[in-house]
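Design a sequence for this backbone.
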């Protein structure tokens, strides 16, 4: 049985290791123009998901753990309105996105069961080439397969961009992730060492130059004494849910099936949970002596699509709630978060959902 993965992205690098563990041969199609995309971006991965990646990679993954998540609102900047912590486990593991990708790619290059094929992702011959496989997984948003077969989707453009950068600051005990729901959009401080913190500001105001943007950011920063700021990177934000995950022998996957607002740091966590479900489906098929073919895609869709939609919509709901609430000067969130902050069941449940999604 031959499986093919299309796209040189985090999703496929992890999927390659999953398939190899199940003794399947993998052809991994990567872009022939070997773009080495470097970024300062940080990715927050929940404990269960991080443990899962570690178990596949089997080498050290440089990371930084956060013990607590503190949520602030615009009109109450002095003290957090709600906090989340877990006695015995970290709230998030923060990893450098490029470093993680490099480690995974190096590991895959060494593996003889993974055949790396360079391919122009827009060349029409890709459509014919993949017909020979029992199962094809396409995790690339921008290629001929996505454009041809996977266009039926629910889409919403957020009128905002995520600005990401890293600040170097005076040494502190840096173990709290912070999120402020500002009038200009959610602003996250993600610690990556005692002297460095990664910033994701999903800014939704009018066009702004980098200097004015940094002034605005500094207005909200009362936590760090900043020495230096790295280059700013910018990402357009949207909400997308694919209506149908499969076409013939192809299963769309990862960001190609769901894209959500980064305010909860859950986009890739959703994908890792999907990978675990897919791995479980493959295990049960192998144990029953069934083939690994297009029916795997149908089983996967049946198990995940409704839950992924609900989860994505819940995050979109949080985004919309704070948008309205900020227009009302936090009239709703002030009393609501104060009540929720005292509710242990709510906090416990939120911690579980952030780690396990809706697969309870
Ligand atoms: C600002 C922001 C912050 C986020 N923070 C978090 C977070 O904290 N936690 C979380 O779980 N999710 C987060 N996400 C979501 C997360 O980044 C995505 O879900 C995840 O990166 C998708 O991975 P991927 O495998 O689909 O593609 P990626 O590996 O991210 O690549 C994206 C696309 O770029 C192309 N590409 C990348 N590298 C190469 C290469 N070397 N050569 C050729 N093409 C390449 C591929 O076509 C690929 O499809 C965030 C998203 C944004 C925009």
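Sequence:
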């Amino acid at each position: 049985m031959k499986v093919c993965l299309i796209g040189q992205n985090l999703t496929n690098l992890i999927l390659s290791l999953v398939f190899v563990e199940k003794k399947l041969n993998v052809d991994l199609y990567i872009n022939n123009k070997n773009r080495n995309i470097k970024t300062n971006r940080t990715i927050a991965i929940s404990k269960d998901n991080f443990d899962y990646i570690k178990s596949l990679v089997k080498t050290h993954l440089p990371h930084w753990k956060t013990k607590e998540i503190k949520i602030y609102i615009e009109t109450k900047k002095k003290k957090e309105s709600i906090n989340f912590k877990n006695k015995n486990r970290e709230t998030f593991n923060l990893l450098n996105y490029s470093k993680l990708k490099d480690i995974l790619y190096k590991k895959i290059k060494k593996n003889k069961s993974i055949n790396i094929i360079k391919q122009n992702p827009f060349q029409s011959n890709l459509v014919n080439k993949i017909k020979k496989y029992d199962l094809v997984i396409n995790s690339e948003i921008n290629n001929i397969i996505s454009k041809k077969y996977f266009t039926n989707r629910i889409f919403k453009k957020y009128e905002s961009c995520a600005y990401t950068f890293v600040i170097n600051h005076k040494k502190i005990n840096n173990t709290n992730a912070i999120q402020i729901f500002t009038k200009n959009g959610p602003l996250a401080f993600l610690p990556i060492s005692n002297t460095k913190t990664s910033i994701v500001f999903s800014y939704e105001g009018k066009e702004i130059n980098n200097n004015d943007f940094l002034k605005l950011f500094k207005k909200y920063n009362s936590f760090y004494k900043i020495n230096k700021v790295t280059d700013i990177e910018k990402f357009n934000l949207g909400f997308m849910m694919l209506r149908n995950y499969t076409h013939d022998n192809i299963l769309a996957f990862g960001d190609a099936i769901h894209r959500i607002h980064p305010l909860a740091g859950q986009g890739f966590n959703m994908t890792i949970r999907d990978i675990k479900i897919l791995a479980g489906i493959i295990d049960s098929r192998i144990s029953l002596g069934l083939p690994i073919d297009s029916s795997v895609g149908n089983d996967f869709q049946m198990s995940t699509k409704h839950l992924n939609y609900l989860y994505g919509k819940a995050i979109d709901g949080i985004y919309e709630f704070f948008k309205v609430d900020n227009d009302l000067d936090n009239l709703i969130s002030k009393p609501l978060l104060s009540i929720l902050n005292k509710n242990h069941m709510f906090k416990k449940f939120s911690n579980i959902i952030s780690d396990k999604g809706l697969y309870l």
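The first strand starts at residue 2 and ends at 6.
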